[in-house]
Amino acid sequence: MAGHGLAKLQNEPLLRVRPVWGTSVGAADPEYDWLFADEFPAVMRTVYLMVHDVDRAEDLTQDAFVQLLKHWKKVSRYDRPGAWVRRVAIRLAMDALRRERLRAILERKVDRPPVQGPADIDLLRAIRSLSRMQRAAVVLRYFEDMELGEMAEAMRCSQATARVHLHRARKRLAEVLGEEVTEDVP
Question: Is 148:137 a contact under the CB 8 Å cutoff?
Answer without folding.
Answer: no
